[in-house]
Automatic annotation (TrEMBL):
<dbReference type="InterPro" id="IPR000620">
    <property type="entry name" value="EamA_dom"/>
</dbReference>
<feature type="transmembrane region" description="Helical">
    <location>
        <begin position="183"/>
        <end position="203"/>
    </location>
</feature>
<feature type="transmembrane region" description="Helical">
    <location>
        <begin position="40"/>
        <end position="60"/>
    </location>
</feature>
<feature type="transmembrane region" description="Helical">
    <location>
        <begin position="273"/>
        <end position="293"/>
    </location>
</feature>
<feature type="transmembrane region" description="Helical">
    <location>
        <begin position="72"/>
        <end position="91"/>
    </location>
</feature>
<feature type="domain" description="EamA">
    <location>
        <begin position="153"/>
        <end position="287"/>
    </location>
</feature>
<keyword id="KW-0472">Membrane</keyword>
<dbReference type="Pfam" id="PF00892">
    <property type="entry name" value="EamA"/>
</dbReference>
<feature type="transmembrane region" description="Helical">
    <location>
        <begin position="248"/>
        <end position="267"/>
    </location>
</feature>
<comment type="similarity">
    <text>Belongs to the EamA transporter family.</text>
</comment>
<feature type="transmembrane region" description="Helical">
    <location>
        <begin position="12"/>
        <end position="34"/>
    </location>
</feature>
<feature type="transmembrane region" description="Helical">
    <location>
        <begin position="126"/>
        <end position="145"/>
    </location>
</feature>
<protein>
    <submittedName>
        <fullName>Drug/metabolite exporter YedA</fullName>
    </submittedName>
</protein>
<dbReference type="InterPro" id="IPR050638">
    <property type="entry name" value="AA-Vitamin_Transporters"/>
</dbReference>
<dbReference type="InterPro" id="IPR037185">
    <property type="entry name" value="EmrE-like"/>
</dbReference>
<feature type="transmembrane region" description="Helical">
    <location>
        <begin position="151"/>
        <end position="171"/>
    </location>
</feature>
<feature type="transmembrane region" description="Helical">
    <location>
        <begin position="97"/>
        <end position="119"/>
    </location>
</feature>
Length: 309
């Protein structure tokens, strides 16, 4: 029999493990997918199919339908996290940004999260400010490396994606979202529609039938990278601080780089390996800061938290 404490801890551990490993592998899956799929179209299909499947499953299980207010909130978060956050990363990888480099850039999400948290009165500690400064140094190193120095647009897209994802993560804990996994389903539905519209407006079309590997990559992104991982992420955002929920960012780059180097033939220069170490160290420092100064941060955050409805 599991103790009461373990019943609460195990879902948190399982959700974090899902984000650490599964989301780390999605960068490689995106890289494989965009070899045949137009980027916005692929991202749109990914979230639209995953959203429809998860929504239908929850409705059949008797889950309460979102209210209009919750649809608006879920749509806002879905656009910030998925349509802009993930969509821009997919476009960047289509523009030949290596999957490992993309993951290292996205590792800055917890640093952006700290900055956006200040909008709601959360004061950062000196340790967290040190982590932010260290992360900025890592970004500079990464953008002067071989893979991004000739691709400033790709670097800008991923930075914008990271900022959008961080802002959406902070905002999501302060607005009334649908309960449980219905939040992820609603967000994916809205994001999928937005991305498909963007795909049509940008003139994307299929020149030929995607390869089997690209279909398999899309399937993996739908089931594991979307339905499973996004539900786990929304669970964490409602149960832990945003910077803890985004702590997956210091594991994802390692997983993504290893997959990219091992299976996609990607290479990183010495400066880029150094940037990886610096950015991961910055995120670890930020996470430690949250634990070391957790009592102070909790007192500061309490007035800003919106009660669930």
């Amino acid at each position: 029999m599991l103790s009461q404490q373990n019943r609460h801890v195990l879902p948190l551990v399982g959700a974090l493990f899902t984000l650490y490993i599964v989301w780390g592998s999605t960068y490689f899956a995106i890289r494989v997918g965009v070899e045949s799929w137009p980027p916005l179209m692929m991202a749109g299909i990914r979230f639209l199919v995953a959203g429809i499947a998860l929504f239908a499953f929850l409705v059949l299980r008797g889950h309460a339908l979102p209210t209009l207010k919750q649809w608006v909130a879920a749509g806002t978060i879905g656009i910030l996290l998925l349509a802009v956050g993930n969509g821009l990363v997919t476009v960047a990888e289509h523009q030949n940004v290596p999957s490992g480099i993309a993951a290292v850039m996205v590792a800055t999400v917890p640093l952006f999260t700290l900055c956006f948290s200040m909008l709601w009165g959360m004061r950062n500690t000196w340790l967290e400010w040190t982590g932010i400064a260290l992360g900025l140094l890592g970004i500079v190193l990464l953008n002067t490396g071989n893979n991004l120095v000739g691709n400033p647009m790709g670097a800008l897209l991923i930075l914008l994606a990271s900022a959008s994802w961080a802002f959406g993560s902070v905002l999501s804990s302060r607005i009334s979202l649908p309960t449980g996994p219905m939040a992820g389903a609603a967000e994916m539905l809205v994001a999928g529609v937005v991305l498909m519209v963007a795909s049509q407006l940008s003139g994307e079309h299929l020149d030929r039938m995607p390869s089997l590997s690209s279909f398999l990559a899309l399937g993996y992104l739908i089931v594991f990278g979307s339905m499973l991982a996004i539900s786990a992420y929304m669970f964490l955002l409602k149960n832990v601080r945003p910077a803890v929920a985004t702590s997956y960012a210091y594991v994802n780059p390692v997983v993504a780089v290893l997959l990219g180097v091992g299976f996609a033939g990607e290479t990183l220069a010495t400066r880029e390996w150094l940037a990886l170490v610096v950015i991961v160290s910055a995120v670890v420092l930020v996470t430690l800061g949250k634990y070391l100064f957790g009592h102070t941060a909790k007192v500061q955050r309490a007035p800003a938290v919106k009660a669930p409805e």
